[in-house]
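Worked example 4.2. Below are the chains of a multi-component assembly; read each line carefully before continuing.
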Amino acid sequence: MRTVMYSLCMTTLTKVQVLHIAKLARLKLSDEEVEKMSKELTSILGYIDQLGGVNTDGIEPTAQVTGITSRLREDTVIPSDASPDALLECSPLPITSHQISTPHAHG
Amino acid sequence: MSLFSLTIGEAHKKLKAKEVTSEELTRACIERIEAVDATLNAVVHRNFDRALEEAKKVDAIGNFSSPLAGIPYLAKDVFSETGTATTACSNVLRNKDYISPFDSTTTKRLKSAGAISIGKTNTDEFTMGASTETSCFDVTKNPWDLTRVAGGSSGGSAAAVASDECIFALGTDTGGSIRQPAAYCSVVGVRPTYGRTSRYGVLSMASSLDTIGPMAKTVEDAALILEAIAGHDRMDGTTSEKPVEPYAKNLSKDLKGVCIGIAKEFMIDGMDPEIQKNLEEAKKVLVSLGATLKEISLPHTKYALATYYVLCPSEVSSNMARYDGIRFGHSPSLAPELMRGLTLNGHYENVRGEGFGPEVKRRIMIGTYALSSGYYDAYYLKAQKVRTLIKKDFEDAYTQVDLVISPVTPTPAFTIGAHSDDPVAMYLEDAFMDGAVMAGIPALSVPSGFAKNGLPIGLQIMGPQWGEEMMFRAAYAYEQATEWKAQKPLLS
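Applying the procedure described above to all two chains together yields the following structure tokens:
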């Protein structure tokens, strides 16, 4: 259930809204950051709001700008440059039996 | 002339004639970095021993048929190269430096052409910024005025090329990150058509907008580099199968029959009068070379920046999700006693809260908001529709003209710290460059003179999609008719 409602026409972001978005984005913010973010995001959204004034009736959205669509290739194995161990080596967490030991989902 | 001052073309001739070795050339650039980089802070990872070994190998083989064989270069700190640190100038990858276990397609192609990678250059954190001020390694200074920014995000690469720390460099351009620092530092910087160069192995910012391109001392050098790195890559499905044209071979010194468009929408309030005057002078030069000028209209380009600041943060919020302290990067919770009782979400929040700087956090927040349920249509979808309108403006324009020109930026390089408290003012730096981004067209910055205070100015030349060849031709003709490339910053 959505517990925080935004108001699009105002596009000011309160501290409560900032904290909610931070939670969705998995970002821990300090009190000072929340304060600052509330002002800065409001200002950025204020700038972005001008798009609301553009008439886009009947206009298709562009996701891929050069028009290339999904392409298929032969289903053949391509050897990877990086070995599994080299990839595991990048992890900052302990490695046990070729697996990364992560914190548990519920602590 | 010192070896480090050579262009690719000049160095190639000397290497081929066995007048110099790649080792000597590489050593000259390394010594130059050691002499000036304490002042500039353009190079953040130095792979000198490895570079000298590679140079010796190239010398031993002695095959200099490729124009890039034996030529030392620097790559922005977002290009993966096996065995080297790639940190995007972010603390999230710095705590335990991320050592790439594979190569980006671009650096791989350069390696097979014989080019020598000597290190990585400074950038705004994950390329998010217009000044390198958001780098965890501190700001890069402008070689023309050490109190000013070198621009960004590819500011390290631009300053390095301008100050001869390398023969050429690689940058990335999502919203102007190659062109703006190129203009601020008086070097040539090219954003190719989206999908002309492969993004594989380059740390992503906004996947539908990111491009990889050269930063060089001359237009000819930039053309040679793009030829070597462009083309289809099976590892990046957005790359085109269109053949790469021989850009460098087709450069020409006149522009007879070429029609160049000037959009009235680029003449904005608040533009520095010196920038305006500079554009007028550039127009005269282009006409003297045989080009004709035509006023055109790009009515939706004024929305390009706002469109960018919806699409880019949205894609950022998605791309940055991978930095969660599991597979790579920063982890504050290594100690077993700290791990006990910590939830996975808590781990993510700690890693990302500590690892990301303010600009990355801002963009993740804006993007998360814009993509959240109930807001997607009003922000992301709306912006994608406006992108269609901007793209159509350019398509219409290119039925009447061959190229479009404009200033690169509304002012020359700003003072370090000038925009640090105002993100929107920093974003406005990109106002002339985001039209090309939205239209997916190629655009470059070529040095076009200096303001009274000695700061460089750049001219932007934009072509239609896949129109790099004509764009290079015009830039080359302009460069040959002017003397700006001969000027170098004074560094002790």
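Take a moment to check your reading of the output against the notes. The radius of gyration of chain B is 22 Å. Residues 3-253+443-486 of chain B form a domain with the Amidase signature (AS) enzymes fold (CATH 3.90.1300.10).
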